[in-house]
Each structure stands twice: as structure tokens, then as C-alpha cells.
Amino acid sequence: MRIGPYALSSPVILAPMAGVTDLPFRRLCRRYGVGLAVSEMISSRPQLRHHRRTRQRADHRGEPEPRAVQILGVDPEEMAACARNAEALGAQIIDINMGCPAKKVCRVAAGSALLRDEGRVAAILTAVVQAVSVPVTLKIRTGWDPAHRNAVTIARIAEDAGIRMLTVHGRTRACGFSGAAEYDTIAAVKRAVSIPVVANGDIDSPEKARRVLDHSGADVVMIGRAAQGQPWLLGQVGAYLASGRRLSEPAWTEKAAVILEHVQALHEFYGPQAGVRIARKHIRWYLERLGWPAACWRPLLQLETAAAQHDALAGLLQAHRAA
Ligand SMILES: Cc1cc2nc3c(=O)[nH]c(=O)nc-3n(C[C@H](O)[C@H](O)[C@H](O)COP(=O)(O)O)c2cc1C
């Protein structure tokens, strides 16, 4: 599948997740072969443009092409300026977030709240597409609530505005993350437009990815939470979709090396203080996925310095290997 000049190397895309899909995690996931890894969202508010956090989110050093940056906002001109800035910083794809359900985002009518204002959706998409020379993509939910599933209308607006790929998370804003994602609306979107459609929501195994693509007719899948604590899953899904072949689990030594490398990369990227804090949730996800009891990893989450966190984790992994 292509997004403008870029042919995706895999039918799997890593979902943007604020607080998770930073540069260290995206690099790791790219190594396991995802076709695209979208950055955490960047607010279009001008006063945040030069904020340290914004610069970190737009950082793509050492990441393979195409590099995608997601932007969020309500004002067409601010969104256009934000997209131009992201392009100047090296973004090769601009993704627009109209799916975020967070209260603090929806309160200012951004994210999934925009789905209630189709006129504004058209204005934002047109302004951003005209502002940059790189492809612009869009991520939405199926609608605001189950009585207002307008994803098909939004998809047509997006196609008319020049959007090059549309991701649909199979839940409404009202659903938050509860209940199961549904793929009928994604199928209806796929039938309604000719731009590539990405299916997203609750995809957590190679077989599920296959079923979702078969059911929806979507071109590729996007995976978020299932990649937490097991980035290798993305490669397993990609291989299965491409050839029907089920890759075996990575060897224990590979997993241990990846976990340590990830934690070290977080310490380097954020600096020791913030790095230790941000690494905690990843450590927990990794060790939970390995089936370790909380009593085993909880003490690790109390450690305050990068060296203590790294060494304790290395010791734990080593002890497990030797056991
Ligand atoms: C912690 C977290 C942060 C998220 N941040 C974003 C975001 O910044 N932009 C966005 O479009 N979606 C965001 N999402 C939604 C995901 O991209 C995705 O649509 C959702 O998790 C459903 O996919 P999944 O079931 O594979 O996780 C976030 C989800 C989670 C769990």
C-alpha cells in the first residue's frame, strides 16, 4: 500500500499513543518491521510550538522513512501552521487526530469532538492539505456516539479534501475504550471511499488481524495497546498477513536484550529523571506479558535512579534466565 510517494513495507502500522510511542519505542517497533509508526500527538496551540515536549514528540532521529507526525487542534489556521512546522522539522507524513476521546481534549472541541462538526472537519483538512507538500492522513473514531456514527460522511469529506489515508478506530467517542471494537462501520467506510483505509481497535494477534482485514476489506491494520510490552508482536502480525506464516516467539535472550535496550534508550532520550519515570510503565508491561507475578516486579518500580533501575532489571532477567 502507498501513502503518496511512500510504499509501506508491511501491512501493520503502530498506533499513535501519547506517552508511549515516543522515539525509543517507535525505533524498536520499526525494527520489528512495522510499515509506519505514527508519533504521539502534537498540539497545534502556537504557545506550545517551542515547548520541550513538542520538540521531543517531533524528534525522528534515526527512524526509517516515512516519518509520520500526528497533530491535534481545532483551528484550521493553527493546524495549518502546526503542520508546516512539523514538515520543516522533517515530518514526511502529517496525521490529523480526530479520534482522541480525552475529556480535556474534547472540552476544547478537538480530537473526536470534531466529528460532531463536519463543516469544521472539512475546513481543517483543507487548510492542512493546502499548507504542506507532504501527504496528509486522518485518524477518526466511528462517530460521536452510537446514535451518530458518521464515519462514512467524514471519510467522504476527507477524500474530497485530499486526505491520502484514513484510519478508523472501531469505537465511538462515547465508548472510550470500553466494549469491543466493531468493524462493520470500517467496512462501510472502505466501500464509500477509494483512499486507503486502516482498521484499528482491539487487534491483538495475527489471526485477529487477518479476520479484521477480511471482514472490513481495509487495506492495512493499526495496532496500539497490544504492542505494549511485546513490540515483536507487530512483526508476527506482519509476517502472518503477508504470507500466512506464524512466526515463533522470539527467544528469551532476544526478549531480555530488547527490554534492557528499550529502558536504556528511554534513559538516554528523556534524561535520567524523566527516563526512569517513563520506563516504569514499559517495565511493568514487559514483565506482566512474561507472566511474572507483581511481587516480582513491583519493587523495581520504586527505584529512583537510572543505574538502579537498569541494574535491578538486568539482575531480574538474568536470574530468570538462569532459573
Ligand atoms: C495510552 C494511549 C494513548 C493514546 N494516544 C493517542 C494519540 O495521541 N493519538 C491518537 O490518535 N490516538 C491515541 N490513542 C488511541 C490509539 O491510537 C488507538 O486508536 C486505540 O488504542 C485503539 O487501538 P488498540 O485497540 O490497538 O489499542 C491512544 C491510546 C492509548 C491506549
Secondary-structure element series: EEEHEHEHEHHEHEHEHEHHHHH
What is the strand arrangement across the widest sheet?
A: 3-4-5-6-7-8-9-10
CATH architecture of the largest domain: Alpha-Beta Barrel
**Number of alpha- plus pi-helical segments:** 13
Shape: globular
CATH class of the largest domain: Alpha Beta
N-to-C CA distance: 45 Å
**Beta-strand residue percentage:** 15-25%
Main pleated sheet = 8 strands, parallel, barrel
Task: Give the helix/strand layout.
Blueprint: E1 2-3, E2 6-7, E3 12-14, H1 23-31, E4 36-43, H2 52-57, E5 68-72, H3 76-88, E6 93-98, H4 103-106, H5 118-131, E7 136-143, H6 151-161, E8 165-172, H7 184-192, E9 197-200, H8 206-216, E10 220-223, H9 232-243, H10 252-270, H11 272-289, H12 294-297, H13 306-322
Parallel strand pairs: 3-4, 3-10, 4-5, 5-6, 6-7, 7-8, 8-9, 9-10
Antiparallel strand pairs: 1-2
Helix pairs in contact: 1-10, 3-5, 5-6, 6-7, 8-9, 10-11, 10-13
The structure holds flavin mononucleotide.
Family: Belongs to the Dus family. DusB subfamily. Belongs to the dus family.
Keywords: Flavoprotein, FMN, NADP, Nucleotide-binding, Oxidoreductase, RNA-binding, tRNA processing, tRNA-binding
Enzyme class: oxidoreductase
